[in-house]
Amino acid sequence: MVPSFRIIKYVKYEKRSAYGEPKSDQFVFTIEDNMAHSNVRRDIKGIVASFKKGDNVLLSWNHGHVTTDGGSGPARPIVKVEKIAPAGTQAWMEQVDRVVGTWDALDHGPTIGSEQWMIAVNRKLGVHDADGHGSDLHTGQWRSAIHRKAFGLEPESRIVVVYHLADGKELRVTYDNLRQTVTLHTYQKDITLPHAVFASGARYAAGDEEFWNKGAYAIYPM
Predict the structure, then answer these.
(1) pTM (2 decimals)?
(2) Which of 18, 59, 192, 212 has its CA 20 to 30 A from that of 28?
């Protein structure tokens, strides 16, 4: 198995010497050598095996040289590989945070998904201009802008998020970033609500139905 990845964007690149590896538009590695010895950790092997053609992933590797039997050659050990999560999910926010780096060397920083975190991400990625103009936080436009800046990709137009309610039940919600709507998949029926203006967080409302989303949390009066 020889996985091949097309590199869309370098999130972080460090060339430690004049002879370091230059940037490339492709990354290829082997899972096993000719003797069927694994070249990667078992967990990474399983993750890579789950990928499908066209999946967008975050890939981290080191570059060095190894010497064996009197010869030397490049070594590119994989450090971490994961599929990029749908925009707006908790996993996505954690990935964005790793890319952006909102925490300092002493592990001090805003809670991921909080208003302060979103402001810090805005500042790091330059989503808003110097006058603070840009997409409102918590909206699909904002998530799309962050996704493009962080990963160099257009996000999926529709994502599904499962919220765990206080009573132990689950609520599945589909965000449509193009139409700016959410669809609540309740036990009785599906309810689609348009985005509405709200001071803090994202509010979707129609008639007597309303749904709030703020970071990784949501409120839906049932």
Answers:
(1) 0.65
(2) 18
